[in-house]
Structures are given as structure tokens and as C-alpha cells.
Amino acid sequence: MGRVRDVLDDQLAKWIESQPVFFVATAPTSTDGHVNCSPKGNRGELVVVDGSTVAYLDQTGSGTETIAHLGDNGRIVLMFCAFDGPPRIVRVHGRGRALLARSAAAAGMSAHFAGGAGVGVRSVIVVDVERVSDSCGYGVPLMGFAGHRPTMDDWAARKGREGIEQYWKEKNASSIDGLPGVH
Q1: Is 81 helix (H, G, I), strand (E, B) or coil?
Q2: Domains of the chain
Q3: Residues in CB range of 2: below 8 A, 6 or more apart
Q4: How far apart are CA 116 and CA 112, in angstroms?
Q5: What is the predicted pLDDT for the residue at 115?
Q6: Measured between alpha carbons, how far is residue 66 from residues 45, 50, 55, 97, 174 in Å?
């Protein structure tokens, strides 16, 4: 362990795509801005497009920090932890961009996802990989996976596309630090 590489090989890509949860961290350029770290469920919503590109479907949320931070400076790190099997932590650092759900670019990228983009998907986050590191993960606890929550999908389905877009206008127009979000 403790390897650093520039790209994801096929074995590591397969392992990353199989993880049921991952974490996303971003930060604004401003030193007084808030760093953000978000857990993300992975039901096929993250794909390794190729050895130097990773993408995931960004579900609608109460904040829009990732989108705002990527628009500000593009810095992003994805972290994956093995909660079962051999211990392992993998971090994927890179430059990211948010392709808003209603854009042609997002529609094109959605073809990489088996289920496509559901009604609650706000954007496709695309990461151009710059650095991949892994470490032992000895301190990560063993935990059983019970399943994904249906809550987000149910909420989005009740709102429908128009309701989701209204929510974006009301709750996702800017970050907690006032940076532009969904526009």
C-alpha cells in the first residue's frame, strides 16, 4: 500500500465502482470559505470513464457546495474506503466540472451510466484525474452494508421535474459562502 499513480488501472477502477459509498471534498478559493465533505451513495452512479476520468451523478441536495466550488476553482478529491474485505483507502484528486442536468453535455455523459440520470439528478460531476493514492485503511472499521435508502428517489419522484427545478432555484442557487450554484 501507499502507492501514488497518475491514472486508474482496470483493477482499481473495478474496485472503486463496486464501493457502495464514497466521499467528495471540495473547498472554495477564499480562505474564509467553508470546506465541504459529502457522503455519496453508489448504486451505479459512479463510473470510471477511462483511466484519467471519473464521473458521478450528483443528486439534488440541500446545498450546492460541490457545484459552487468546482465553478470557483475546480479542485476536488473523491475518497473510497473498504468497509468490508481487505482494508484500503483510495483518494482520487483532480479537477472537476459540473455538467448541469438540463445541458447537452450532461445528457451525453449520462450514457455512461446504466440507469441514466433520474429525475433527482442535478448534475454530472466529471473529474479529470491528476493523482491517485491508496493507503492501508487499517483504522477504517468493518461495517456491514444493509442497502441503499430509497428516500432521495421517493422525494424526487413526488416533486417531479418541475418541482425539482423550482427547488434548485430556491435552495441551490448559491453556496453557503455566496458562490454561484445551480443557474
Answers
A1: strand
A2: 4-171 (2.30.110.10)
A3: 133, 134, 135, 136
A4: 8
A5: 72
A6: 16, 22, 13, 9, 11
